[in-house]
Every structure is written in C-alpha cells, then in structure tokens.
Amino acid sequence: MRLKFYIFLSLVVSTISNSQGIQFDAYTNWMPQLSSYSELMNGLTKSEQLNISLRVYNEITPITNWKITVRIADDYKINNYSIPAETGLLKFNREIRQGNNSNLPVSIFSGYLPLSKYQEQTIISSENVKLENGFVRSFIFDFQMIGGNHLLTIPNGEYKTSYVFNLYKIENGVDVLIQTISNSNLVLGAHLNYNANFGNQSILLENGSNFFHFKFNSVNDIISGKSIKIKDALRVKTYNAHELIVKASHQDMQSSTSNHTLPVSIIQLDLALSNYIGGNNSEANFLRINSPIQLNNYDQVIATFPQWSSEITFDLTLTIPGNIPNLSGAKGIYETFIYFVIVPR
Q1: Torsion, CA 182, CA 76, CA 36, CA 94, rounded to 10
Q2: What is the pTM (predicted TM-score) of this model?
Q3: Do residues 123 and 69 lie in contact, with contact meaning Cβ atoms separated by under 8 Å?
C-alpha cells in the first residue's frame, strides 16, 4: 500500500488599499487526493479547503453595498496535461461571525458553484450589513473535483491553479474595486494518485487501434454488417492482479448532419489473447476474457487476471452486426470514444 499525506497551508494578505482599514485575506488547505478508480469516476471533496476573511479595523466611511467575487487563474495543469476549470466546484461550508452586526446574515451562494477562468462570480454579498469598524467575519468553503472520464486519460500528479478574489463596493449600480487577492500560493486543484498509474503500468493502443472506421456505403453493407480486427492492438502492462474495464464515452452517437442518433450498443467488442509475458507462460490460463460484449457508457469488466504479469497483449475486434434496424435512415458520421481502464484487485 502506498500512501502520501500532505499538510499545506498558504496565507496571502492583500496589501492593496489597506490604508482604508480593510483587511481582506484568504488561505487554502491544499487539494483533494484521488487514489482509487471510484474517486476518479465519482470525484472527491476537500472539506474546508478555502477560508476567506474580511476585517475592518479602523474608522472608515461605512460601505453598505458590497460583494466578493471569485475566478481562477487557469485550468488545473501539470506539464502538458490539464483538467478543465469548470470541473472544480465551490460549496459554502460555514461562517464565523465576530464583532459588529454579527447577528445579521450576508448573502452567500447556495449549492455547488462551477469555477471559471474567464468570468468573475459573486460568492458573498450584502446590501444591509455594513463594512465598518469592528466588522470581523470568515467564510469557509469546500472544494470538489468532479470525477469522470476526463480523469482517466491523464497521468498521476498535482493538477493545480490559483484563486483570484476581488472585493467591491457598489455605488449607484457600479462596481468599484476595493482590494484584490491574487497569488500563486492560493492553490486549488486535484492530486491524482491512482495506483494503476504508478511506475510503467499502462494500457497502450497499438497498430492503428486508436481509430476504427466503419463505412456503410450500400444496403448490402447494412444487411451483412461490418467487422474490423486488429492484431496485437491492446497492450496491458501492470504488476498487479487486475480487472480490465471498458466503456464508451456516451450512450448514443449523434449524426454529424442531423439529430439522428445510434446507440453505442450496436457495436460489439471482442478481445482475444495474443501474447502473455510473466513468470510462467502457463499462468496465462488464469486470464479470464468476458467477450464479446455490447458497448455501453457504463463500466464492463472485459478481462480479469488474478496475479502478477509483466505484459498481456490482446487482439481487438469491433463489429457492427447486419440487419440492425437502427441503421435504417442513418446518414453522416457517428462517433464515440472507448475507454480501457486498469483496476487493481
């Protein structure tokens, strides 16, 4: 079992306009760590990941109408890989009230807020709780990384970006910037630590198997169906007992020229063992292949191997059988993506 544990705390204090007596601070509590296939698919929340504090410590002209906005600097990135900005969500957790008017609530967004690298979004605002001497509040938020197929095709690592916060007063309907917090240490993102990605474990599509192109040019093609087989197409390298999961990106494929759709289940997928490299070649008998299967957008275990191996290579065949009613009236290009995933046992 491999475990990594992080404690990281960053504190950033804005120095812009502090002469007004307003202290606008934020700090973050690192990021969620996704270590299992379930977490990659379902996402994970980092509780109390963000703390924003606002304090007025001098006599200032009271500000009645004000707001705090957030955006993020970029997508969550590492090297040449990235996770889209909007897959990160903020959710309000709790508020700590002290000082003047602590019994009066301010407006805080509800639910989950998809973050944006382009657009500022209001997360806290008030039209009746004044920013004035003695105002002291902290706002704590959870951060969630949405799971899904977008996390299956990228390597382990810390995918991160930073927050940008603005504090505005609103005068006659116009936003007037008071202070900004923008610092690379205000980190958010996701640490992918999936154990099937360690070392040289991998799934490789070879010999042109990353693209299957079926052409139906006549009625006879529809009646007879089509099949494409690629030898030594799928190479699995892992030193764990594992399951091999397959799924399509969507349940339906839409025509490039109309609203007509075809279910991905019209495609049959078949694996066959081509080559086994391990401690003893007889161990290949422990391999269980569950095919052919009909594709769908949920997980299907297509192969299982109960012990260590160095490398297993499969032939891959995709088939669209003949006389499928769905093909009647189909025109244009229909496409989907197929994902293969190693899940250690």
Answers
A1: 30
A2: 0.77
A3: yes
